[in-house]
Amino acid sequence: MVGFFSVPKANAASLSNVKDTLTTSRPSPSSPLNADQAAGATQISIVDNGSIFLASDSAILDLDTGQTIESVNVSSMSAQISGSPNSRNIYLNSSLTNTHHKGTAVWTGITATHTIQFTVNTSIPSGGKIKITFPGAASNIASPSAATFSFNNLQTSAVKCYPTSACDSISVSAPSITLTTNATQTTGTIIYVLIGCTTQSTGACTAYAPALINPTKINSAGSSDQWRVLIETLDASDIVLDSSPIKIATIDSVQVQGIVEPSITFTITGLAHGTNITTQNASCTGADITNPGSGLDATATFVNLGGLSNGNINISAQELSVSTNAFSGYVITATSSGRFINPATGFWITDANGGDGLTANDTPAPAVLPATGNPAFGIHPCGADVASGTWANAATAFGSGAKYSNPWNTGVNGYYATLASYSQPASARKTEVEYAGTVAATTPAGTYTTVFTFVATGTF
After folding, report:
1. Distance CA 305, CA 452 (A)
2. How many Å apart are CA 64 and CA 68, to the nearest integer?
3. Could you give the CA distance from residue 112 to residue 25 in angstroms, rounded to a whole number?
4. CA geometry: angle at 315 spanning 383 and 413, to 5°?
C-alpha cells in the first residue's frame, strides 16, 4: 500500500478594498552631525541626506562615547549648504547642554495613527485571526528605522477594531499585530483596525495615541518611499483564508511660507478751538475744552496757544492715531526742543514737571499745573492707551487734575516722555494731546515757542 499525506491548506483569496490611512505621511528625519558640537551651541550642522527638521520638532541627539543623550526643540532650518558632504544648519530654541561628536545621529520620531480597512472575502470564523505585518525584521525600537515602522513599545490598549467582535483579544509582536475574533466575521463585513488609538466609534478614532514611528527618508525629496504591509485573515487553525499585501507611502511634508509685511501708520490731526476733549475721545474724562482763541485751530504741524494771561490756562490739542500690525503693539514717545522760551529775551515759562530738562525717561515725572499766578507749560495725553497713573486722566485745573510735562534734553541726552502704549496689533488707536500754558502777572511780554517731536514705534 502506498500512502499519500497532505497538510490542509486553504486557497487564499484576496481581501477587498484594502487600505491603510496614516494621520501623517511625513518621514522621520534622521541625520548625522557634520561637525563636533560644543556645549552651549544654539545651532548644529547635519549632513544633508534629505531629512527635513521643522520648527517645533523635538530633535534628539543620540548618546555617544562620553556623551549624554539630549532633546532640544528646533526653531528653524537653513537651506542646503554646498560642501563635501552637503550640509544644513538646524537652529535651536535653547542651547545644547552637552558636547556631541561628529557622526552622532540627530533624529525626530514622527508617529502616526494607522487606520486599516478591508472587506472580508472569506468568512472568518469565531476564534479566527486577523494578522497585520509591517515590513522589516521584528523591532520595537523607539527611534526611526530605515527599513520599517518602529513599533515604539506599542501597547495592545492602543489597538482598536470595529466591529469590536473582530478583536476579542490582541497581541503585539513587532513587526506583527494579531487580532483574534469572538464571532464570525461574515463575507462582505467591513473591518477597521486602528493602530495608535485608544477609543474608536464605528471605525473612526476618537482618542489618538500614535505610537508607530514612520521610517526615515530614502528617496530624493518629493519622491515617496513605499512600504509593504501584509493583511491576512486566518481560521482558528492558523490556516490563511484571505491575504492582501498593500503599499503605503511616506513623503516629505510641504512647508508653506508667506510674509505679512510689517506696517505702521501714524497720523497727527489738529483739533479746532472749542473742542470738548471728552467728546472727541470717550476715554478722556477731563472734559477739557480747547480755548486758544476764536480761529486759532490747531493743525497737524502748528499749535497756537493764543494770548496767555495771569489766572487763565490756555489749552489747544491734537489727536494722535496709530495703526500697526506689530505683534506687541506700539509706543508713542515725545520730546521737545527745549524750554517754552522767548528767543528775543531768553526768558522762559517754567516746565510743568519742573527741573532743568529730563534726567531719565519720564523723569522728572509729569505734574499738575501749579496754583494761579505761577507760570507753567507742558503737554498732557489722555486716552485708553495712556498710563493714568503717570498722567492722571482728569480735568486741567490749577493745583489739581491732569498732569503735564515738557520733556526736553540737555547736551547729548536722548530721554523721552512716554505718552501711550498698546500691547497688541492696533487699528486707529487714538490719543489726545493737550498743550497748556499759563503765566504770572510779571511774565515778560513776547512770543514763546518750542518744537515737539512725537515718535510712534511698533514692537514687531
Report:
1. 14
2. 7
3. 8
4. 70
Pairing of strands 16-22, 70-77: unpaired
Q: Which helix (H) or strand (E) holds 381?
A: strand 376-382
Half-sphere exposure of 11 (CA within 13 A, CB side): 0
85 grid coordinates? 558632504
Q: In b/e form, how buried is each residue of 129-162, taking b as 16+ CB within 10 angstroms?
A: bbbbbbbbeeeeeebbbeebbbbbebeeebbbbb
Residue 139 has pLDDT above 50, yes or no: yes
Burial label for 166, CB within 10 Å (0-12, 13-18, 19+), is buried
Tens digit of each residue's pLDDT (9 = 90 or more) over 40-59: 999 999 999 999 999 999 99
Strands 400-401 and 314-324: unpaired
**Beta pairing class for 452-458 and 129-133:** unpaired
Closest Cα partner for 361 from 390, 394, 382, 399?
390
C-alpha radius of gyration, the chain, whole number: 38
Report the amino acid identity of residue 64: D
How far apart are the C-alpha atoms of 174 and 319, rounded to whole Å? 71
First-to-final CA distance of the chain:
95
Distance of CA 190 to the CA centre of its chain: 42
Domains present along the chain, CATH in parentheses: 16-24+115-250 (2.60.40), 30-107 (2.40.30), 264-458 (no CATH)
How far apart, in whole angstroms, are the C-alpha atoms of residue 96 and residue 106?
13
For 168-221, the pLDDT digits (tens) are: 999 999 999 999 999 999 999 999 999 999 999 999 999 999 999 999 999 988
How many helices (H) and strands (E) the chain has is answered by 2, 30
CB 345 within 8 A of CB 444: yes
User: Model-level pTM?
Assistant: 0.70
Residues in CB range of 150: below 8 A, 6 or more apart = 109, 139, 140, 141, 142, 143, 144, 212, 213, 215
Question: Cβ distance 28 to 110 under 8 Å?
Answer: yes
How many CB atoms neighbour CB 294 within 10 A? 9
CA atoms within 13 A on the CB side of 351: 21
State the Cα–Cα distance between residues 25 and 214, nearest whole angstrom. 8
